[in-house]
C-alpha cells in the first residue's frame, strides 16, 4: 500500500509505530518487573507486540515507496537505513512478550518458574524495551530531520 486516502501510507503507519512500540515496550517492562501487572497485561502486551511486529515492515516498505517519490538525499538515506533496523527491535519485543506469556501460563498452571529464569527474562525484556524506545526516538529524529530540512 503506497497511499491511503491520498496520503503516503508511510506517514500513517509511522504514527502507529511511534505510539504503539514505546507503549508496548513500557507495558512489557512493567510485566517483567511486576508479576501482578503481568497477570493482567501479558495478553495485551503479546497482542500489541505482534501488531508492532507486523506494522514495522509495512511501515518500512511504505517508506521505501515514499523515498522513491521524493528523491534521495543523505538525510533520507540515513533515515531509511536506521528505519530498516526497527524490525530487529520489534522482533526482540515480540520474543520478550512470548517469554512473559510462557512464564505467566506456567505460573497459572502451578508449575514453579525458576527465579533465575524469571530474572533472565526480566532483564531481556527490560533491555529490549528500553532499546526499542531509544530506537523509535532515533528513527523519528532522523525522519524529522530529513523531512524538515527540505522545508526549511
UniProtKB/TrEMBL annotation:
State the protein's name: DUF2231 domain-containing protein
Q: Which Pfam families match?
A: DUF2231
InterPro entries given in the database record = DUF2231_TM (IPR019251)
Which superkingdom is the protein from?
A: Bacteria
What keywords are assigned to this protein?
Membrane, Transmembrane, Transmembrane helix
Ranges for domain DUF2231 come to 6-149
> What species is given as this protein's source?
Mycolicibacterium pallens
**Transmembrane segment boundaries:** 12-34, 41-59, 86-105, 117-137
